[in-house]
Structures are given as C-alpha cells and as structure tokens.
C-alpha cells in the first residue's frame, strides 16, 4: 500500500476522513459509475458538520417523540379521546343536523375544540360548541345548558349530537 494515493493515513481525524473518502468513492463508483479521480476529497470540516447535524437531528427526534408521548397523541384543540363509538357522545338531533347541513347551525371555528373517537366501532372526530362558545346560530335554537357535537360539518350529511353540559369541577 505504499504509494497508493487512496490508502488511508494512520491516526486521528485524518484517518477517519480518509476512510470516509474511500467509502464515498467506492459508493459513487458502484452506484453511479463515476471515476474516483473526479471526486474531491471530503474535508474534516465537512465531516464534523455532518456529525454535528446528525447529533442535532437525533436530539430533535428524541424531543419530538417525548413531547408526542406526553401529549398522548392529541392533536391541537383536542379536548379528549374516547374508545366509545362516536354516536354515544349524545343524542342525535335531526332538526339541528338539517340546519347544520344548510350552514345555519355550525361551529364558528371548525374543530377548534374536539373529541377523537378511536374505538373499533364508530371512529371519527366531533367538534364541540356551546351557546356561548364557538357556535354560529342565527336562528337562536341553541340551549344554554347543552353541548353540541358536530360530525361532518360543512357537508350535507352533517350530524349534530346534543349532550348535557358537564358541571365545571373548579
């Protein structure tokens, strides 16, 4: 190997750079049929930048995973999750559903607050509104002690489920 210009030098970062350089050249030759003579030498600085970027990416990935686990896989605005079927959230109100289908009874902000249903039957998501929160009701049919759950808002098959508002625990 004496006199071989592609042979790695012994010792430290130079040796690592040379080994990576050889590996990159071999990969390029194998996969892209390029001549190793056309490829430039990988500098130690580029390797350090690559290693630093890899370390930062790993830290970001770990932090993201831990935040997602802490949030219990909730999405923004999700109030709760349930294994129960979606239709068990309240009583289906056909007249309110018809108004919702025409856009006359709906949430002001779609899914601003929601419940996710991920059980084996009846899975989906409903948006939540009350007479004093997030509800567009020009016909004034909403009741103050009721919570309205909207499924498929914005479509003609919109369904509105009505439930009694839970008592505030504070």
Structure characterization notes:
The structure is a single chain. By secondary structure, this protein is α+β, with helices and mostly antiparallel strands. The model is unreliable at 27-39 and 62-71 (pLDDT under 50). The protein has a 6-stranded mixed beta sheet, with helices on one face. Strands 3-6 form a two-stranded antiparallel sheet. The chain has helices spanning 12-32, 44-70, 94-101; strands spanning 78-82, 91-92, 106-107, 114-117, 124-130, 135-136, 146-151, 159-164. The chain folds into 2 domains: 12-70, no CATH class; 78-164, no CATH class. The longest helix is centred in the middle third of the chain and has 27 residues, at 44-70. The chain is 33% helix and 20% strand.
Keywords:
170 residues; alpha+beta; two-stranded antiparallel ribbon; 8 strands
Major sheet characteristics: 6 strands, mixed
Low-confidence stretches: 27-39, 62-71
Please trace the helix and strand order, writing H or E for each element. HHEEHEEEEEE
Number of E-state strands: 8
Structural class based on helices, strands and sheet pairing:
alpha+beta
Q: Taking all residues together, what is the mean pLDDT?
A: 74
Strand content: 15-25%
Please compute the radius of gyration using only Cα atoms.
Answer: 30 Å
The shape, in one word, is elongated
The span between the termini is 79 Å
**Arrangement of strands in the largest sheet:** 1-4-5-7-8-2
Number of helices: 3
- Compute the number of structural domains: 2
Helix content: 25-40%
């Amino acid at each position: 190997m004496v006199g071989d210009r592609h042979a790695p030098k012994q010792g430290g970062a130079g040796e690592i750079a040379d080994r990576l350089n050889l590996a990159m050249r071999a990969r390029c030759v194998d996969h892209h049929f390029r001549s190793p003579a056309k490829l430039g030498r990988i500098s130690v600085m580029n390797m350090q930048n690559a290693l630093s970027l890899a370390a930062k990416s790993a830290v970001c990935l770990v932090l993201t995973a831990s935040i997602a686990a802490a949030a219990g896989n909730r999405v923004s605005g999700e109030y709760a999750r349930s294994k129960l079927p979606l239709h068990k959230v309240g009583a289906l109100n056909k007249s309110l559903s018809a108004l919702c289908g025409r856009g006359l009874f709906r949430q002001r902000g779609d899914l601003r607050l929601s419940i996710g249903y991920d059980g084996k039957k009846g899975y989906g998501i409903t948006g939540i509104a009350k007479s004093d929160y997030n509800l567009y009701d020009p016909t004034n049919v909403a009741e103050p002690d009721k919570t309205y759950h909207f499924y498929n808002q914005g479509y003609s098959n919109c369904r509105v489920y009505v439930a009694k508002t839970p008592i505030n625990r504070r």
